[in-house]
Amino acid sequence: MFGRMVNDCQERIFRLALRITHNHADAEDAQQETLLKAHRNLRQFEGRARFTTWISRIAINESLMSLRRRRDGSRVPFEEAMGQSEIPVVSDRWHSQLEDPETAYARRELGGLLSSALAQLAPRLRVVFLLRAVEELSTTETARILGLSASAVKARLRRARHELEQTLRAAQKTARQADPSMAKNAAREQAPSPWVV
After folding, report:
1. What integer pLDDT is reported at residue 149 of this predicted model?
2. Class assignment of domain 100-197?
3. Domain 1-87, classified CATH 1.10.1740.10, yes or no
4. Delimiting residues of CATH 1.10.10.10 domain(s) in the chain
5. Percent of the chain's residues with pLDDT above 90
6. Can you give the pTM of this predicted structure?
């Protein structure tokens, strides 16, 4: 029974751990520790929340413990961790497999910028953003997993979105300065930010 329950969320656990730790080896360790702890403590699972919520909480704790153990200053760049995992932050599931090269390049460029911006977020903000925006958990589920109030989750999500927006705007400004033709196109396409709540 445990094996069936875990099979459904094993990839999610690894993806979550990788996005928190930024390191492939640490993510694998956190995933393994999560599965061991979940198996040992399965009797403590009361069923008040979904199994995925319960095991995600364990995964987050293990990932954060991994970060604490690694505070010796050695860090693997986020791009390297993402390259090792081959798990994109921006999912390809919404994109046509038949796209022109310019669109494909723009999508990869945006994905790289977003990955870089996510890497700059503080872990407490990054975890909330990943659970809400990437894993698509509800505010209540995210609050339960992190042991926070719903209002704290909302505040952290708002802060994460604000910081991401600032980082992406700065990258856009830098790109415009490097290529003046982008400034004309951007002025025509001025749209409200998707990060504003």
Report:
1. 94
2. mainly alpha
3. yes
4. 100-197
5. 14
6. 0.56
* C-alpha triplet 79, 83, 86: angle, nearest 5°: 130
Torsion angle, alpha carbons of 159, 161, 166, 169, to 10: -170
What residue ranges of the chain are covered by domains with CATH 1.10.1740.10?
Answer: 1-87
pLDDT tens per residue, range 85-137: 444 444 455 555 566 788 778 778 877 888 888 888 888 899 899 888 887 88
Section 20-35 average pLDDT = 88
Secondary structure, 3-state, the chain: CHHHHHHCCHHHHHHHHHHHHCCHHHHHHHHHHHHHHHHHCHHHCCCCCCHHHHHHHHHHHHHHHHHHHCCCCCCCCHHHHHHHHCCCCCCCCCCCCCCCHHHHHHHHHHHHHHHHHHHHCCHHHHHHHHHHHHCCCCHHHHHHHHCCCHHHHHHHHHHHHHHHHHHHHHHHHHHHHHCHHHHHHHHHCCCCCCCCC
pLDDT at 155 over 90: yes
